[in-house]
Amino acid sequence: MKNFKQKYGPWALVTGASTGIGRSISEQLAQQGLNLVAVARNQSKLEILKNDLEAKYDIQVKTISEDLSKPEASSEIAEQTVDIDIGLLVANAGIENNGPFIDNDADDESRLLALNIVSPMQLSHIFAKRFSDRGKGGILLISSLFGYQGVPYVANYSASKAYILSLGEALNVELKSLGIDVTVLSPGMTKTPMTDNMSVDFNKMPITQHAPEVVASVGLNALGKKATVVSGLINKIYAWENRFIPRSWPVKLFGFLVRRASTGDKKQTVEKLASV
After folding, report:
1. Among residues of the chain, what percentage have pLDDT more than 90?
2. Is 161 among the residues known to form the active site?
3. Which of 18, 94, 127, 145 suits 77 as a labelling partner, its CA being 20 to 30 A distant?
4. Residue 273's pLDDT band (cuts 50, 70, 90)
5. What residues make up the domain containing 187?
6. Strand ranges across the sheet with 228-230
7. Residue 154 resides in a domain
8. Model pTM score
9. Which of 104, 98, 113 is nearest to 68 (CA)?
10. Residue 274 falls inside a structural domain
11. What are 108-149's pLDDT values in tens digits?
12. d(CA 16, CA 41)
């Protein structure tokens, strides 16, 4: 892993920082001596993160408790960080809704789009401008293996992650001349609160589960080197199969797998994910 403090500067901002992949990314950046702006919804978990990282790594952690699905969230984060020399943005926060699309609540699906698409787009726009002015910076966006094709029964979620994948690929080229590195990390099954709350038995699916610290390391190691990266060999095969077979095939395959693995106990994660 490169020296991020030397490459990007003294501060990084991580959304969804209190749990899962976001917490692991925060810890690995702290290990390199970066100060952190940690954004999440759950203030108590943010305080735990702050106390832990400041004690272990002698860094500063500024916490921002914010619901990133709200329209004003990104501008409020911008205002609270205007005097902080942030050089790295990790847009990690996200939620998922699973189950038949017509059974899901439309307001929940709209909130998913606000958090998974609008928030990372707005934050990327805000901080890319700042990074351009300072002549360097980095943006790590978090997509998903499900973003590489439509996935029935998580249709809106997979579509939102496809947007992030496409946005990041384009910005990787567009912002490079401004000194800004952009990479998209697409995890597969990862042991996080989000997957714990899905009404899917992943033991019935031919995928491997990864620890969040492993996925975090894959993403950070790829930043500045690759436009996109998928964690895990089997996941890479799933992601790249679209290049060699008709696109409809993996869509049908994932639909079959998710339907078969459904527990039938539908859980909406909108209010359950502390990492939002």
Report:
1. 73
2. yes
3. 145
4. very low
5. 4-261
6. 61-65, 35-40, 11-15, 86-91, 137-142, 180-186, 228-230
7. yes
8. 0.88
9. 113
10. no
11. 999 999 999 999 999 999 999 999 999 999 999 999 999 999
12. 8
Find the catalytic residue in 5, 45, 50, 161: 161
Q: Which of 157, 191, 238, 267 is catalytic?
A: 157
Tell me how many domains the chain contains: 1
Q: Which DSSP letter does residue 272 get?
A: T
Mean pLDDT, residues 269-275 taken together: 34
Strand partners, 230: 186
Angle at 104 between CA 100 and CA 106, to 5 degrees: 135
Residue 231: helix, strand or coil by DSSP? coil
In a domain, 236, yes or no: yes
Highest-confidence segment of 26-35, 205-214, 248-257: 26-35
Looking at this protein, which amino acid is placed at residue 47?
E
Per DSSP, the three-state class of 271 is coil
Q: Where are the beta strands (DSSP E) in the chain?
A: 11-15, 35-40, 61-65, 86-91, 137-142, 180-186, 228-230
Taking only the tens place, the pLDDT of each residue in 217-270 is 999 999 999 999 998 777 777 777 777 777 776 777 777 777 776 766 544 433
Give a yes or no: residue 111 inside a domain.
Answer: yes
Taking the C-alpha atoms of residue 131 and residue 122, their distance in angstroms, rounded to an integer, is 14
Specify the CATH number for the domain of residue 131. 3.40.50.720
In this structure, which amino acid lies at residue 271?
A: E
